[in-house]
Every structure is written in C-alpha cells, then in structure tokens.
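hey m, so remember when u said the tokens were messed up on ur end? i reran from scratch. heres the input so u can diff it against urs
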Amino acid sequence: MDYLDSRRKSRCAGKIIAAALCITVCIIILKQNQSPTYSSLSLFSQHELGVTHVLVTGGAGYIGSHAALRLLKDSYRVTKVDNLSRGNLGAVKVLQDLFPEPGRLQFIYADLGDAKAVNKIFAENAFDAVMHFAAVAYVGESTMEPLRYYHNITSNTLVVLEAMAAHKVKTLIYSSTCATYGEPVKMPITEQTPQLPINPYGKAKKMAEDIIIDFSKTTDMAVMILRYFNVIGSDPEGRLGEAPQPELREHGRISGACFDAARGIIPGLKQRITIQCWGYLPMILID
C-alpha cells in the first residue's frame, strides 16, 4: 500500500512539474513577443520629432494586422495590443520579423476590459494616435451572446476613450461596421443613410460610435469612424490574411447575397469583384 501511495504521489508531482514548465514556456514566449530590451522600450515611452506612434488595438487580428503592416511600411512607430482571444500570434511574428529594428514595433498582451492594464499601457507609452480595431465581430454569435458583445465592444471602447482623455491622446480612428445600418430601404448606402442596427453586434458598435461622437464634441479630439462592408483577402504578398478559429468559421462575415451574386444565382444581379487599398485597409469589394 505504501508503495502504491508513493507511486501516485510521484505521478502527481510529475504532472505538477510538467504543468509548471508549460506555464513557464508560455510566459517566456509572450515576453519574447513583447519588446525585448529596455532601450527599445524607452523609444516607445517618449515622443520623437518626426515619428508618429500609433496604438493599434486588436493588432493581432485580421484588419488590425493589415493596418499595422501599412503603418510600419510608412515608417510609423506601432504598438499592438491584443488579448489573442480572436487574434493570431502568427500575424504578430510576421511583422516582428519584417520590422525587427528597435523602436518600430512592440506587442503587448492585454485585455481592454481591464481598465488598470489599459491605463498602465498609456502611462508607459507616448502615443500620438489610436486605431481601435479590437472587438468580437460575428453577427450570428452576437445574437447568442449579446452581453459579451456589449461588454467587449461598447464598454471596452469607453475604457480606451477614458485612457486617451487621461493621457491627452487626441487622435482616434474607430473601426465600426456596416451592421450599424441594419436593413436600409434605399441603396446604395451613404453616410446619410439612417443607422438602424438590428442585431447586438451592430447595436454595440452604434453605441460606441455615439459615445465617441458625444465625447469629441466636448473636446478637441480628432475622430474618424470607418464602417466596413465586405472585407476579405490577404495582402498582395500573401504574408497576412484571415485565419478565424475553426469554431467561428460558421459565423463567416461575407453575406450569402454576395456569394449568390458571385455564383450568378440571383437573376439579373451582376457582380464585379475588385481589389482596392483604401487608406490603410486592403479589401475586396463585391458590388
């Protein structure tokens, strides 16, 4: 009996040691993906003449990683923040390999729902502008988990705005969605089209837009709001693309009508597919 007990204890101890080693390796990997040296960190913590430092939230995500790539190609200094719940660490590594020079790119693992962590990031970095992409972004999922979407999109945007205000960052580009328009009665959609969202995803984004606009009216903050339609594809050299988690692929963001048009199923509806790069955002437009 004593022999069996000792074997069980030995196995248990082995499992604990293995788990500790796994945790240690994960921590090391995350630290390596963040800024590796103090000299590199110091470049991010101070304003530099002629260099614009942009915080890209959701920087490991699909659109965020493409935006970061374009910023880096245009010689901006970039800090990417992502909790990797939907982001892709591989997209971070691609850009780190492309832009290894000190002071060009850093990745910070953090959740925007943690106000203390967000405030710490702003306190330790000298940001000139924020591009806020971080969000869960599936219409179908939002109808099943509405509270998650209101927390992740609306509440987290408020956290970012409060940190920007506290640290006097006065430029914001906000990633919204065409889902804020709902089902418009008149096409094509313009900026004057009424915003009448019909699902929690669109409603949460519309609330965030309203908060941003209301706040900008009382301050000198410069704001741009982007409402995407069908964004898809990779960068021309194939370095970055969309890689959704397997369980989320059923929530694909391209509407069935677009696929039906492309396949010629809808009678009388012609389709044209073009690849464009508008601003910082490469996209395929189906119209």
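this time it looks ok to me. The chain is about 45% helix and 15% strand. if urs says something different then somethings off w ur setup not the seq
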